UniProtKB/TrEMBL annotation, chain A:
Listed transmembrane segments: 6-26, 33-50, 56-75, 87-111, 157-179, 211-236, 248-278, 284-308
Cellular component annotations (GO), alphabetically ordered: plasma membrane
Protein's cellular compartments: Cell membrane
CDD domains: TM_PBP1_LivM_like
Top-rank taxon: Bacteria
This protein's record includes keyword Transmembrane helix: yes
Full protein name: Branched-chain amino acid ABC transporter permease
UniProtKB/TrEMBL annotation, chain B:
Protein name: Branched-chain amino acid ABC transporter substrate-binding protein
Family under the similarity heading: Belongs to the leucine-binding protein family.
Keyword presence, Transport: yes
Presence of the UniProt keyword Cell cycle in the record: no
UniProt-listed CDD domains: PBP1_ABC_ligand_binding-like
Source organism (scientific name): Reyranella soli
UniProtKB/TrEMBL annotation, chain C:
GO molecular function, one term: transmembrane transporter activity
A Gene Ontology term for the protein's cellular component: plasma membrane
Record-annotated membrane-spanning stretches: 12-34, 41-59, 65-84, 96-115, 135-159, 188-213, 225-250, 257-277
Main location (coarse class): membrane
Protein name in UniProt: Branched-chain amino acid ABC transporter permease
PANTHER family: AMINO ACID ABC TRANSPORTER PERMEASE PROTEIN, BRANCHED-CHAIN AMINO ACID TRANSPORT SYSTEM PERMEASE PROTEIN LIVH
Keywords: Amino-acid transport, Cell membrane, Membrane, Transmembrane, Transmembrane helix, Transport
Amino acid sequence: MTQKPAAFVAIILGCAVVLALAPLILPPFYVRVGQLMLYSAGLAVAWTILGGFAGYASFGHAAFIGVGAFAAGLVEERLTGLPPALLLPIGMLVGGLACAILSAAVAYPILRLRGTFFAIAMLGVCHVCAELNNNIDVLQGSLGLNFPAVAPAAWDPAVFFYELYLAAGVVVFLIAWQIQRSRFGAGLLSIREDEDTARMLGVPTERYKRIAFVASAVLTGLLGVIYAHSLGYITTDSVYRDDTNLSLIVYSLLGGMGTLFGPVIGAFMLVFITQVVLARLLDFHLFATGLLLVLLVLAAPGGVLGLVKSWKLRRRAAATAPAE
Amino acid sequence: MSVHSKKATRRRVMSALGAAALAAPAIRSAHAQAKTIVFGGSVPLTGAAAETGLNVNNGYITAVSYFNDVLGGVEIAGEKYKLELKLFDDASDPARATTLIQRQIDEGTNFFLGSFGSNIVLPTAAITERAKKPMVQTGGGSDAIFTKGFKYVFGMYPRATRQFASTAALFKTLTPTPQTYSVIWTNDAFSKTAGQGVKLSCDAAGFKKLDEFELPAKPTDVSSVLGSVRANTPDLLVCVMHDQDSLLIARQMVASNTNVKCLFQGLGPQLASFREALGKYSEYLMCSTYWDESVPYKDKFFGDSRKFVEYYKTKFTRPIAYHTAGAAACIETYILAMQAAKSTNPEAVRDALSKADYETFYSRIKFTPDGDGDAIIMGSMIGQVQKTKLEIVFPEAASSAKALYPQPTWDKKA
Amino acid sequence: MNLIIQTLADGLVLGGIYALAAVGFSLIFGVLHVINLSHGILVLLGAYLALILSTTLRIDPLLTMPAVMAVLFVVGYAYQRLLIQRAVDRSPLGSMLLTFGVALMLQNTMIWVFSPDMKSITPGYALASFKLGAISFDAVRVSCLLASLVMLCCLAALLKFSALGRVIRATAQQTLAARLCGVNVRHVYALTFAVSAAFAGASGIVIGIILPFSPADEGTWTLNAFVVVVLGGVGSPAGALIGGLLLGIVSTLTAQYIGPSFPNVTMFLLLVLLLLVRPQGLLGNAFAPSR
């Protein structure tokens, strides 16, 4: 990154303020779409800390959404006496902690796998969590779990959760940005490019991967806790979704794999397309979504940022060619 | 000059188009308020619940086109209205369902029809509740929906734990009286609560429980469970799960020659495709059904249930299911409530719905104070497959045949 | 004692069918290094074709196998040449997403064409059973198992002895070397895909006979194939067989002794554990030595 850090943070916070004011003029439907965009973008950036920076593409991050959400919900259910303003922070703490423990526990063995095998193993982890959650009665996965209404009475819950997602999204984004520009981030990049060489050159690859994995999982879990509160009632099927697992990869591919802005752009675009453009298709929307994926892979394998980059290169080539 | 004027015209056309595009939704909603009543909501037309989703969707279409084409619209407080459906596919994704419900509320839709599965119905109902728009739905029976204190949500079925009361009552009337039962359910919110309901009702009726089995949400093999059933055979085997899983159990019971005196499947035998797939072996199987062509109710619009079916057959070739009739009844219930309220104001309609006591081709319509269907009036009837047809065997008022018990063993049916 | 033997027998029968359903997936993974998320769709396509053929021609569904396999062979060949080939040498994620997109489109198309209803194929012997000592067997499951084993042997022989099989194996082991020796790699890729699709179709017939199916089930069969391949190892019919049988036995044993709702838990637990202990599968990797 060539920008000055202070300027960069200022720009991001400026954008955030503009976005925060948006619900004042947006109709309620677009506030909901905005919620979903910010939530998806947050997830996509959290995913990219591991999948984009370190090149360990997880196919099972919905596990952390689910574990975070259910851990928070089960604890909050036992604390009904407390004011709602306290419940959400407690829930997030619990959810984040649960994800930290789970990810730390599986990190060591599972990060020995690479490429597709890592992706598949994460899918396995996600399904094991989902099945256990569904089949152990105290975890209430199949009967469903209610979440307390945490929005202050004066606020429209839709706007409240919009702002909450926005705040969480900005935090996730800034954390990812800090990671990217740090020595740690450079280490992750070296792992993505050539892990064995990186290790030979003295990069503590194991430790770096594990930290990235846990960070990514905890941030995902926190977003999952907010998501569950915004729905108010969840079953296993609401959070452990294979289409979420897949969407997280699609966001990065659509925007640009391994970049910081790519996942955000990808998430915004895909949510807009599926929720606004394709929304009215009654028995056609699966087909349209599938077609979109196919076209994406065939036409823009580098994502939107990849297209922009190649366009810039071509223009530069065109500009320099006549001078020679 | 020509260049200039061309540009100017183009700009003018563009701005005119832009203005039209901006104005279009406004015009349409104004139009909707004047003459049409819009019903919004979602149905799952893809994903695991798609089969029932299609049945429900067909029911909505049948009702709306009957009211519009055959009756020429409905009269409410002296004014004629046409009906319009605006549904979308939620693909069983709660995020998608909640976002798109909001869009319909923004667009001025006042009346909602429900989706399938409590994890979709509840979050969407929370939004319509907040907007004070009623929702009458056929797809969410879990207790969770009706114990949240929602005032605008109505269900066409009793809540899941109460759905089995009438079946237990039927079991009591069989001779020789059955003594024991076992219950199997799959692990999803609906079937699991229904399983609890089976235990509550059967225990209350004095039957002894031998075993209970919980299957995964999508079982592919039940031979181990059937082994346990053979080792410890109950008089009544009750399965509460979705149609596809019921078929799997029935087929494996035949193949492994697992016999009980009565096999009762909550969902399954009511579908023509299920009976076809099992052939002769579907004889004597029992199931819950909420409606049948032969029910005796009179209807002020359709006449009766046979006439409803006749009209349905002019529109669709797909065999009719009780979900189709239930869905059509949702719309009819709305119309009756609007006529009773003499208004299309959503809050007035909600009040009328809560006081509803109507007779429709589908059943008598009466809701509990919590919004679910009255357990006795809108509770399930019991069907039994007899000579490849589904006959109603309980309650007596609606029955078309007598319940046959005990069922013969599978090898005698061949 | 009888209970455990019965459980094992049920597991083996189920496992043989899992194996056939997974072998095509395994072959594509082994040769093209593509994770074919539309595998389940190909399986279902086989089931629907068999249903249509056997009811219109009034023949035993297992007899429709040659026709179904031929159709799917052509479909698979075209699918690879027209779509997959364009993404095959890029990132594995890209090709995986491509197949997922296709799966979504085809699932939607199937809903239009075949309706979302559950269907089942019911041959005359669908509900018969026989006893061997105290162990009872489901006739249809056993005949499906036999069909599966025969098909797996055919595929193994094809790969081992035929010229096509040699070329496929060569391409899988050293794509570049094979190309240098004059192998038309694109053609081989497409043929591999075609063979895999044909076997997916064959397994679809078998599955359609023993289980009710609907378009929404495609994910289940893709996922099952995934697990089988990871258990048994990539690219070989023997690996798929071992993986399938293991999965079948583990499922029925769990259902019997832990609880009927737990087979999926043990299935995925086994998947994760095995990936950690032996990422190359129980039989090792039949083709490429390290991947």
